[in-house]
TrEMBL record:
L-histidine binds at residues 84-86, 114, 128, 132, 259, 263-264. GO terms for biological process: histidyl-tRNA aminoacylation. Keywords: Aminoacyl-tRNA synthetase, ATP-binding, Cytoplasm, Ligase, Nucleotide-binding, Protein biosynthesis. Signal peptide: none annotated. This is Histidine--tRNA ligase. Homodimer. The keyword Nucleotide-binding applies. Its EC number is 6.1.1.21. One of its GO terms (cellular component) is cytoplasm. Belongs to the class-II aminoacyl-tRNA synthetase family. The keyword Lipid metabolism does not apply. One of its GO terms (molecular function) is ATP binding. It comes from the Bacteria. The lineage of its organism: Bacteria, Pseudomonadati, Pseudomonadota, Betaproteobacteria, Burkholderiales.
Length: 429
């Protein structure tokens, strides 16, 4: 036998029946997005490396350590598997002149890739659902994005999710804060770990996001960005809070919330749960008014968020909110090979009428015994067994046997009336 090939560590197969939960979650998202008038966009998994270097920032962890980058053998172009999708969405919007007629509300679903040490909720191939509002300024649009995510939690029935918000202000305000941060951390350089020392002059704002408990005192005493905000930035932040309050959305202000990517300004936010331990951030985002210009478009504002699909599914599992695995409505029992043409014609009519029918099949050319087929029918979870025996086919009928009512009631139905039975079955659901 040939050596078995296995998946790359941290890049996982999604198999039935778990894949049904993915499909269900995706449908819930589509429903909520439609209510908010967001439209689907699908971008390539591979993008030019320069897109992420330019948009995310050269000194971010993602660009420095986590991207899967390679050289195209055909033309030597530097390419990268997308580590996130906001930059790709913005690239697509700019390239296709989508803002020519006004702003766009978009959403996406798909895989992202980062070099990670695989652990629960953190994988090398992971999946995100994201929403982006491009070409719209104003804190009311920031609030709309937060309300969109909040509505999804409500639709899913999720509990134990809290919202944290902050404002990063505008570039000049961040610059003044950055200089004050550097002075503060330089004065306490002996308290910084190696990562903090490395970031001190390249990206000091990221020191505030450290997970090292030993650095908590020096971070807590650092200058707060909120104290450097001008009147316009403060007004935008207050407007955001007022809208959230009016919609009954609870939140806390976290002045140390900075996010890990360089393109953010003004509003940033995270939805966090305590149910998943260290990987508690399940949705995060903010405003990125300079990003469209960074990737070559005319200056235009933008705001958005992304959520981790694996983490949301894990949270739904923890809270027993995942639906049951779908089962067929009926299982076709066909003990006689000669009955196959008639049986499959009837099965196809049922499927076209909206009835989910699983047809019996085996690993060999033989169909198997009547008893073994009924055992498979029962194990499938189907509500009914449809028996296409020689006698039934000779009479132009099918025997419909209930598998779930205990009594096992059965009745013969003329094949000519199978569509009517399908309609009655659908109306009883």
């Amino acid at each position: 036998m040939a050596e078995k090939i296995t998946a790359i560590k941290g890049m996982n197969d999604v198999l039935p029946p778990q894949s049904a939960h993915w499909e269900w979650l995706e449908q819930q998202v589509r429903d909520v997005m439609a209510r908010f008038a967001y439209r689907n966009i699908r971008t390539p998994i591979v993008e030019p490396t320069g897109l992420f270097v330019r948009s995310l920032g050269e000194v971010t962890d993602v660009v420095e350590k986590e991207m899967y980058s390679f050289e195209d053998k055909l033309n030597g172009e530097a390419l990268t598997l997308r580590p996130e999708n906001t930059a790709g969405v913005v690239r697509a919007v700019v390239e296709n002149n989508m803002l020519y007629e006004g702003g766009k509300r978009l959403y996406y679903m798909g895989p992202m890739f980062r070099h990670e040490r695989p652990q629960r909720g953190r994988y090398r191939q992971f999946h995100q659902i994201g929403a982006e509002a491009l070409g719209f300024s104003g804190a009311h649009v920031d609030a709309e994005l937060i309300l969109l995510a909040h509505s999804l939690w409500q639709q899913l029935g999720v509990q134990d999710v809290r919202l944290e918000i902050n404002s990063l202000g505008q570039p000049d305000e961040r610059k003044a804060h950055r200089e004050a941060l550097i002075r503060h951390f330089e004065a306490h350089a002996e308290l910084l770990d190696e990562d903090g020392k490395r970031r001190l002059h390249s990206n000091p704002l990221r020191i505030l996001d450290t997970k090292n408990p030993a650095m908590k005192p020096v971070v807590e005493s650092a200058p707060r960005l909120l104290d450097f905000l001008g009147e316009a930035s403060l007004q935008a932040f207050e407007t955001l809070q007022a809208i959230l309050h009016s919609n009954g959305v609870a939140f806390t202000i976290n002045p140390r919330l900075v996010r890990g990517l360089d393109y953010y300004n003004l509003t940033v936010f995270e939805f966090i749960t305590e149910s998943l331990g260290a990987q508690g951030t399940i949705c995060a985002g903010g405003r990125y008014d300079g990003l469209i210009e960074q990737v070559g478009g005319k200056p235009a504002p933008g705001v958005g968020w992304a959520m981790g699909v694996e983490r949301v599914l894990e949270l739904l599992k923890e809270q027993n909110l995942l639906p049951g695995v779908p089962v067929p409505d009926a299982y076709a029992v066909i003990p006689d090979m000669a009955s196959l043409p008639v049986a499959m014609q009837a099965i196809q009519q049922l499927r076209m009428a909206g009835v989910a029918v699983q047809m019996h099949a085996s690993a060999t050319a033989e169909l198997g015994s009547f008893k073994s087929q009924f055992k498979k029918a029962d194990g499938s979870g189907a509500r009914y067994a449809l028996v296409f025996g020689a006698d039934e086919v000779a009479e132009g009928c099918v025997t419909v046997k209930s598998l779930r009512d205990g009594a096992g009631a059965q009745v013969k139905k003329p094949l000519a009336e199978i569509a009517q039975w399908a309609n009655s079955l659908q109306s009883s659901d």
